[in-house]
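Lab notes, practical 5.
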Amino acid sequence: MILLSVITVVRNNSAALERTIASVAEQTWPAIEYIVVDGASTDGTVAIIHRNRDRITRWVSEADGGIYEAMNKGVRMATGEYVIFMNAGDRFYGPDTVATMMEGDPKVELLWGDCVIEKSDGSEEYDSARNVLGPLYRQMTVSHQSLFTRTEALRRRPYDENLRIAADYDFLCDRLLAGATWEYRALPVSRIDDRGMSAVGFERGIAEKKRIALARFPRKRWAIHVHYGVLLLYMRLKSALGGVRGR
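Output from the prediction step:
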């Protein structure tokens, strides 16, 4: 039976963390270890961890250099064959999600499904990751909350800690362009909040993704410039009209 390492990275988000812990605990797949990496929170997050220590395999609370340093730290703590990141506020779609995705003993380096984006107005948007390779030069085409990755792949090629928002996009581009084996399953894996880091810091996120795309897909440079120019204009207009709400 495949052991899955679920990793949660959190800093000063105690209310959201409890929802994520409950979602991991209700999974019917028995071979799960749960790792929480806290960035020296001061808001009661550590108290939440202590209260749920029977549901957590390993945890650490210490200062770090950002989300990707914390995610890399979680990978180093992991002992499972696959890892998936469910950061504070993220949840699995349902109790049988992991069991369904692990069915058939997958051998690929990357295994992913779809996600449901929960919007601040109470509505939901289904985000399919069926078409990943085609538009990859424009965007992160699969949510990292719906991506199961071989642990050894992330140890060989960890997230770039010099990036602040788009290191998961950089990793996905790197592995797919290198010919990593992968499998898509048309199932919802995660529920995510639309107010994550890449939404809050959208201009920095756009700049990072554009720089990555230009480095990875030099033959599409003009299409990349046009895409990100239009996207930046759209996001600025959306922000001016009522606040950015989206990935």
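Observations recorded by the TA: The mean pLDDT is 92. The chain has one domain: 4-194.
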